[in-house]
Design goal:
The complex is a heterodimer. Chain A is mostly helical. Chain A has 2 domains: 61 residues; 82 residues, no CATH class. Chain B is an alpha/beta fold. Chain B folds into 4 domains: 88 residues, 3-Layer(aba) Sandwich (Glutaredoxin), CATH 3.40.30.10; 221 residues, Rossmann fold, CATH 3.40.50.11540; 88 residues, Ubiquitin-like (UB roll) (Roll); 96 residues, Up-down Bundle (de novo design (two linked rop proteins)). In chain B, a hairpin with a 2-residue loop joins strand 12 and strand 13. In chain B, helix 16 runs antiparallel to helix 20. Chain B is globular and about 75 Å long. The chains are: A mainly alpha, B alpha/beta. Chains A and B meet through helix 2, helix 4 and helix 5 of A and helix 1, strand 14, strand 18 and helix 16 of B.
Amino acid sequence: MTESPIKTAEQIENLKGLLTPIAEREPGPVLLCLQAVQTHYGYVPEGAVAVVAEVCNVTRADAHGVFSYYSDLRKTPPPLISVRLCAAEACQAVGGRALAAAWGEACAADPNLAGATGTDEPVFCLGNCALGPAALVNDQLIGNVSVEALKSAVAAAQNAAEASL
Amino acid sequence: MTVWFVPRDAAALSVGADAVAAALEARGEHVVRTGSRGLLWLEPLVERADSRDGTRVGWSNVQAGDLSEGVLSEAAANFLGIVEELDYLACQNRWIYERVGIIDPVDPDDYVSHGGMAGLQRALEMSPMSVVQAVTESGLRGRGGAGFPTGIKWQTVAEQAPVPHKGDPVDAPRHKYICVNADEGDSGTFADRMLMEGDPFCLLEGMAIAAHAVGADRGMIYLRSEYPAAIAVMSDAIEKARARGWLGESILGSSCNFDVTIRVGAGSYVCGEETAMLESLEGRRGTVRAKPPLPAIEGLFGTPTVINNVLTIASVPSILARGPEAYAELGQERSRGTQVFQLAGNIARGGIVEVAFGISAHELIFGLGQGTKSGKPLKAVQVGGPLGAYLTADALQVPMAYESLAAEGAMLGHGGLVVFDDSVDMAEQARFAMEFCVEESCGKCTPCRIGAVRGVEVIDDLLASDAPENAEQLLRDLCDVMTQGSLCAMGGLTPQPVLSALDQFPEDFKRVAVRVDVAAQGVVHE
């Protein structure tokens, strides 16, 4: 996915069409609108925050403040395959730190792996604390995870992505 | 017809439950998807109901490949026998979790035939104030960590008149809200998630009871984005509850009007703090509000608001159905009823244990949990999430209850216990507590925002210094400032894991090897 800012009048109108019903229906809609933008585009493109501000009747500064606060909201397109390792205590207790280091080495040694997965942020707790270490590959939660399990999950996700193209 | 049960809980899915269900269905078997029993080391745990009396027998750690030769056999090595007779389940006293793992979570008929809606029906026969009274008599306290008496909170909201949203004209519609905090960000806790995935109607029933008791017309569930499976199950359940008249206009034919929506979080830990959650629900940055005003008086959009944790609200239906006296008989001191403990981290038998307050951490970890998963000696247990204290192996006789843990300088939090074996480096854990605070501080209070950054630096200094006494004094002073000078638990309690590690495991802060290792790592999460 490549970056494409929201700048033409048509793009702005399309985005308003997506967001206006949310802003009219829901109280306190700024975060909801930003999440809707991300669901639609995969990230929050340049120019979208200004449209959210206008639709929600708040200042651009306020809308940008919300956008910049939440770690889920991205300003660049996501990697083709998102790999997020749990970095919290329960997974640390079963080798989470060593796994993260080994996964980093595996990606460094394999450009295809690094290219497909990018550098996603770690996540603090996936709620799978009795079956750690845990990881999220796209939307798939994996327990008792190893580098090998991550590699095969990435390969499966790649196949699924190619099949859907 | 033989009926098979395969969990759809995220933990079971994470070890292959979907493939097992698909393999059974491919063989023409009738499969019902359930929540998880909470015996997570056995997942995927597949059950089969006896065609005569419905007794369920189970098989542990089933993989799809096991089914290639035929269906599961009672002669197999992983055959468990009758699931409810397993020691881990037989010793439990399930109130909140009474249906989890048993029913199809999104089948309303299954819910009703297993005792669902009895609590709401009972509540609607009572006056709102009698419902508040019953909750007060049960002794129920907030399960999110703060432990505030639920009945008193409800009473405060019940006494307020509904008001228009802040900023709306005076003649705009007037509201009160029930907000459920499902932003379960503490590492080592997963009971909210499993309840929502395993018995979502129970949470909705509890919310409707609360709405009747305090006169609220709207409900919101603030559910973290890291739980996509829970979001899907809850959304499905809300639709079905509306179709049944369990939500919406005149619930179960009563005069109570109440509907529920879900709002999904966006990756901020501090939004689990109730006032930050309100800010986030209102669509703003999730920064903490100063109190007063209390949310019960001026909460979501300026209206009177009940904010309760998932487990608190989910306790209410069974309290009303079985009676507050029976609930209040359980537990000790001012910790009444049951607590859903979560055994996590390096533990042989991790999972959900719902029992009365007062069981010791030792019994939970060594009795039920059977010690560490690695088989190495246990070194530390973090109780109550990332802001909770680390306990040593010698301190585990402490009864698990609000008062007894507080007396040890620890806290119950959301009931999670994270076990570490002797390979853990407690200086690294102390440093992580500060790093986590750097990442997740909302930035409102200086002691938290800047103190956490300084905390990481000072711990590094302490580990690298030839005169660690000075750095240690600085760290203690810093922790004092954070504890005294922060509005919420993020800055206020981060010193708890740090100081407990420093006090209980001083040798870990003196090893040369640790110094080199930690200093070389730098700040990990940039």
